[in-house]
């Protein structure tokens, strides 16, 4: 056994539900449910979340997933008790590679599920979001926040780096200097400031957060299924590529849409309306 395998085993053996799933016909709400600990990312919660998301993204009837936390917080990030064990792990024969396995295969597996699946992910940030929990929220296809949301840069004070895709997300939204200032300054951002900086796309009253997320699910459900599943990877690739590459991808992808009944019905409807 190793530090990594012990964590996975402990997480899978956890007896209490730490993640709740509410399924609808074309959407699901996934809630982190360890409010007494601010939904800290314990081994049990991470294993349960990964399992729940794997099942949902494999269901092609589910077109959107809302990721949120039980009040009062979205997630406090990594489990400090788990971090406390890190020096012992470093002294093992596996050394730092065992920590790498946890970061890549558990924390990283969840951001890859969010980014690479065809399902639309909506982060509904209901309170403080820090560390890896913040990374998951920023990886979602869009993020909305309640007035109680707080974006917490916990990395620096722990002597850690922006992790699990956070450096990518922050530099694209804030630019290099903005991301550096966010990291070095350690300022907690309220919901309005997060909206101003482009870290979230909407701020609503706390009591309306899940209703606002559901309204986004309605917008997604109104899109033709092929349009969503083709546009998500297109936009994610375009965010990383050059203008020329984005143009070429669009030129190859667009003709496929002309072959669908949805497109042809829409054109005939518009012509008839004229």
Model description:
The chain has 274 residues and is of the alpha/beta class. It has two domains: 3-222, 2-enoyl-CoA Hydratase, Chain A, domain 1 (Alpha-Beta Complex); 225-273, no CATH class. It is 55% helix and 14% strand. It has helices at residues 3-13, 43-57, 80-84, 86-90, 96-116, 131-139, 166-185, 191-197, 209-222, 225-240, 243-258, 261-273; strands at residues 19-23, 27-32, 64-69, 120-125, 128-130, 142-146, 150-152, 189-190, 202-204. The strands form two sheets. It has a six-stranded mixed sheet, with helices on both faces. Strands 5-7-8 form a three-stranded mixed sheet. Helix 1 (3-13) packs across helix 2, helix 1 crosses helix 5 (96-116) and helix 2 (43-57) runs parallel beside helix 5 (96-116). The radius of gyration is 20 Å and the shape is globular. The model has no long low-confidence stretch (mean pLDDT 87).
Task: Please render the helix and strand layout as text.
Blueprint: H1 3-13, E1 19-23, E2 27-32, H2 43-57, E3 64-69, H3 80-84, H4 86-90, H5 96-116, E4 120-125, E5 128-130, H6 131-139, E6 142-146, E7 150-152, H7 166-185, E8 189-190, H8 191-197, E9 202-204, H9 209-222, H10 225-240, H11 243-258, H12 261-273
Parallel strand pairs: 2-3, 3-4, 4-6, 5-7, 6-9
Antiparallel strand pairs: 1-2, 7-8
Helix pairs in contact: 1-2, 1-5, 2-5, 5-6, 10-11
Order of helices and strands: HEEHEHHHEEHEEHEHEHHHH
Helicity range: 55-70%
Through-space gap between termini: 70 Å
Number of strands: 9
Overall structural domain count:
2
Structural class: alpha/beta
Q: List segments where confidence is low: pLDDT < 50 over at least 5 consecutive residues.
A: none
> In the CATH scheme, what's the topology name of the largest domain?
2-enoyl-CoA Hydratase, Chain A, domain 1
CATH class of the largest domain: Alpha Beta
Spatial arrangement of strands, main beta sheet: 1-2-3-4-6-9
CATH superfamily of the largest domain: 2-enoyl-CoA Hydratase, Chain A, domain 1
Describe the global form.
globular
- Alpha carbon gyration radius: 20 Å
Strand-residue fraction?
5-15%
What count of helical segments does DSSP give?
Answer: 12
CATH architecture of the largest domain: Alpha-Beta Complex
Oligomer, anyone?
single chain
Q: Mind describing the biggest β-sheet? A: 6 strands, mixed
Overall pLDDT level = 87
């Amino acid at each position: 056994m190793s530090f990594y395998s012990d964590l996975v085993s402990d997480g899978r053996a956890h007896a209490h539900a730490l993640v709740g799933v509410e399924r609808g016909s074309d959407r699901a709400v996934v809630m982190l449910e360890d409010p007494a600990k601010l939904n800290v990312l314990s081994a049990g919660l991470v294993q349960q979340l990964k399992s729940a998301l794997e099942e949902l993204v494999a269901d092609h009837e589910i077109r959107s997933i809302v990721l949120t936390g039980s009040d009062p917080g979205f997630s406090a990030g990594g489990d400090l008790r788990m971090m406390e064990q890190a020096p012992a792990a470093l002294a093992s024969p596996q050394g730092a590679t065992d920590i790498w396995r946890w970061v890549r295969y558990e924390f990283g597996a969840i951001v890859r599920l969010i980014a690479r699946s065809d399902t639309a992910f909506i982060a509904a940030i209901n309170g403080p979001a820090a560390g890896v929990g913040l990374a998951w929220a920023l990886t979602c296809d869009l993020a909305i926040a309640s007035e109680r949301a707080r974006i917490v840069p916990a990395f620096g004070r722990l002597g850690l780096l922006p992790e699990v895709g956070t450096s990518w997300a922050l530099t694209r939204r804030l630019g290099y200097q903005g991301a550096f200032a966010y990291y070095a300054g350690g300022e907690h951002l309220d919901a309005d400031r997060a909206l101003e900086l482009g870290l979230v796309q909407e701020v609503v009253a706390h009591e309306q957060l899940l209703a606002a997320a559901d309204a986004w699910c309605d917008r997604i459900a109104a899109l033709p299924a092929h349009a969503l599943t083709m546009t998500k990877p297109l936009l994610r690739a375009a965010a990383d590529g050059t203008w020329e590459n984005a143009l070429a991808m669009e030129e190859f992808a667009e003709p496929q849409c002309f072959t669908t009944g949805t497109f042809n019905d829409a054109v005939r409807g518009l012509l008839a309306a004229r």
